[in-house]
Amino acid sequence: MAELTFKSPGVSTREIDLSGPANVTPQGTPAGVIGMAQKGRAFIPITLARYQDFVAEFGQTDGEKFGPLAMYEWFRNAQAGTYIRTLGVGDGLKRESSGRVNNAGFVVGSEQVQANGQLGQNTFAGSTAVVPGVLGRTYFLGAFMSESNGSRVFSDAGIQTSLSASAIIRGVVMVPSGVVLGLSSSYSENNTPANANAAYANFGVGSNAGASLGTVNINNGQSNFVMILNGHAPTDEFPNVITASFDPNSAQYFGRILNSDPTRVEKAGHYLYTNWDVYPSLAVVTSSGVQTAGTTASGLIEAAFALTGSQARNTGTASVPNYEGFEDRYRTAFSPYVTSQKFGGKPKNLFRIHALDDGAVANSLFKVTIENIAATKNENSPFGTFDLLVRDFSDTDEDQVALESFRGLSLDPSSDRYISRIIGDRHAYYDFDQKTGAQKLRIDGNFANVSKYVRVEIDPSVESLSVDASALPTGFRGPHFVLTAGTPAGGVPLLTGHLTGSTGAGALHDVTFSDLANAQVAPIPYRLNVAKGTGLSKKPIANLTWGVQFEVQDKLDDPNGTVGPDLSRPSYTKYFPRWAVGNRSVHTGDTVGTPNDGTVVLNSDLFQNNLFSLENVQVATGSDDRPLSKYWDVASYRRNSTKLTVLSASDGTVFDDTNTRFLDPSKDFDHLPSRKWLKFSFFVQGGFDGVNVFDTEKSKMTDLAVRREFDDANQGGQNGPTLRSYRKAVDVMAEKADVDIQLLAIPGLRHPEVTNYAIEAVENRFDALFLMDIEEKDQMNTFITGSGQLPSVSYTVNTVADRNLDTSFAAAYYPDVVMQDPATLTNVVVPPSVAVLGAFALNDTVAYPWFAPAGFTRGALARVIETQVKLNRSNLDDLYEVDVNPLVAFADTPGVVVFGQKTMLAAQSALDRVNVRRLLIEIRRRVRRIANTFIFEPNRAETLNRFSAAVNPVLQQIQSQRGVSRFKVQIDTTTTTQADVENNTIRGKIYVQPTRSLEFVSLDFVVTNAGAAI
Question: Fewest beta carbons within 10 Å, which of 160, 182, 455, 873?
Answer without folding.
Answer: 873
